[in-house]
Design brief:
Distance between the termini: 68 Å
Order of helices and strands: H
Radius of gyration: 26 Å
Number of strands: 0
């Protein structure tokens, strides 16, 4: 069964992770987000209780 032989696939996996971590990740993290989070204070809504007809 060729799936159990890690010889070629382990090197491919390590190479792809090294490319991602060393080359792609710094480029992706340098982008400025287009919609940055704002510093608004969160307001909590006070819902009115439901008037159930059977209570």
């Amino acid at each position: 069964m060729p799936q159990l032989n890690p010889n070629p696939w382990f090197l491919i996996m390590l190479t792809s992770w090294a490319i991602f971590l060393l080359l792609m990740q710094p480029k992706l993290l340098s982008f400025i987000p287009t919609n940055p989070p704002s510093n608004k204070t969160k307001t909590t809504a006070n819902p009115t209780p439901w008037a159930w007809p059977w209570t």
